[in-house]
Design a protein that fits this description.
alpha/beta; Rossmann fold; 2 domains; 8-stranded mixed beta sheet; 19 strands; binds cytidine-5'-triphosphate
Length: 400
């Protein structure tokens, strides 16, 4: 079988040196990669490096090997174009269809999925012009990764950092695996909660649960590959932030509620995969609770936490917003799931059976997705990303 053909577009930012690692991962995993740098990219990493690592000449202009019509052929033949790093200038050119070098020509002729991994200073990323260009590209079906937050060039930190090359590689792999299927979440904003909340008793103790966050993170990664802008509200998960996702870290149910409600204001869909504690200690002890000889411990009084899923379902932030819940059940799984779907008022409920050795922390899951019209979509035992894709398969046709 022919190797999948990938075009690695490199525009002129310091993160170009990290794109060498992405190139390596792509070639070592059996992809045929053509690097198309811009003139400015060559200020950071030279032609020799791109050629040696890819095994192809790395050409920037349309005037070389003209008899092969490279400005048309390279784009036409590609299975995937990934522009990494994508500068503010490159995003602007792509959004407006400018074509003044080989990479911008390639973007106009490509019929395959296109992934942009932006990297720039926070001010440039947040500039209204850049944001509008990104929105335009997403609306047209491109996967534009949210930059990571962290150290930028020089001493400053903020949003705009190039995502980890290994993570960008995983995005490419997922997008390629989708083949010719439309990025059905293109132009959509989805909010996902993940992990498990911790309700503090005192400065060192909390009431928590065993959720690892893996299912919610899988939902975030798959939504990115389907073209969505993704906000992940992560409660106490130790997993690394997925590439291309806005991650909001929270601790308690009350903090999770606040972050989810805020992000949901302009969301097309909200998926509540987090295990939110139903109760929290009525009193938080400012100092560590000490044991005292001859005294029994005080009972821990609990109060109810807000039910975020029920609130989101009852009070849709925008008409047609789709709300999805998760239910972990130990007995009478389907009957309890049906009752919970009705009680919470959401559009879909993903029900899975949990127990000592099931689901928590595991890489796999098995579930049934229930809808108010009585339909049941069973998802056989498999990777959490497969269940995540089934959830999006069911959400996407329901979006207005
Ligand atoms: N959930 C929520 N807010 C809470 C508790 C749960 O938003 N305070 C959400 C979870 O994110 C999940 C769904 O509700 O999507 C199901 O949670 P679960 O705890 O199983 O539901 P409960 O209504 O608490 O049912 P049970 O009687 O089993 O505790």
């Amino acid at each position: 079988m022919d190797k999948p053909k990938v075009v690695l577009g490199v525009s002129g930012g310091i993160a170009a040196y990290k794109a060498c690692e992405l190139l390596r991962r792509l070639t070592e995993s059996g992809h045929d990669v053509r690097v198309v740098p811009t003139e400015s990219a060559l200020h950071f990493v030279g032609e020799a490096t791109w050629s040696a690592l890819s095994g192809h000449p790395a050409v920037t202009q349309v005037w070389e090997t003209v008899h092969e019509v490279p400005h048309v052929r390279i784009g036409q033949q590609a299975d995937l174009v990934v522009v990494a790093p994508a500068t503010a200038d490159m995003l602007a050119k792509a959004a407006h269809g400018l074509a003044d070098d080989l990479l911008t020509n390639t973007l106009l002729t490509a019929r395959c999925p296109v992934v942009f991994a932006p990297a720039m200073h926070t001010e440039m990323w947040e500039n209204a012009a850049t944001q509008e260009n990104v929105a335009t590209l997403r609306r047209r079906g491109a996967v534009v990764l949210e930059p990571a937050v962290g150290r930028l060039t020089g001493v400053d930190t903020g949003k705009g950092r190039f995502p980890e090359p290994g993570e960008i590689f995983e995005v490419c792999r997922r997008v390629l695996a989708r083949g010719a299927r439309e990025p059905d979440l293109a132009g959509r904003h989805v909010v996902i909660s993940a992990g498990g909340t911790r309700e503090p008793l005192d400065p060192v103790r909390y009431l928590g649960n065993r959720s690892s966050g893996k299912q919610g993170y899988a939902l975030a990664r798959t939504a990115v590959a389907r073209g969505a802008r993704v906000t992940l509200v992560a409660a106490n998960s130790e997993l690394p932030d997925p590439a291309g996702v806005d991650v909001v870290h929270v601790g308690t149910a009350v903090q999770l509620r606040e972050a989810v409600i805020k992000a949901a204001a302009d969301a097309d869909a909200v998926v509540m995969a987090a295990a939110v504690a139903d109760f929290r200690p009525a009193r938080y002890a400012e100092g560590k609770i000490k044991k005292r000889d001859g005294e029994e411990p005080e009972p821990v009084a609990l109060v109810r936490n807000p039910d975020v899923l029920a609130e989101l379902s009852a009070d849709r932030a925008r008409p047609g917003q789709i709300v999805v819940g998760f239910a972990a059940e130990t007995d009478d799984v389907l009957a309890n799931g049906r009752a919970k779907l009705a009680r919470k008022g959401c559009d879909l409920l993903v029900v899975n059976e949990v127990g000592e050795r099931r689901t928590f922390g595991s890489e796999e899951n098995e579930a049934v997705v229930l809808a108010p019209d009585g339909t049941e979509t069973p998802v056989p035992h498999g990777p959490k990303e497969a269940l995540a894709d089934t959830v999006w398969d069911l959400v996407s046709p329901r979006l207005a």
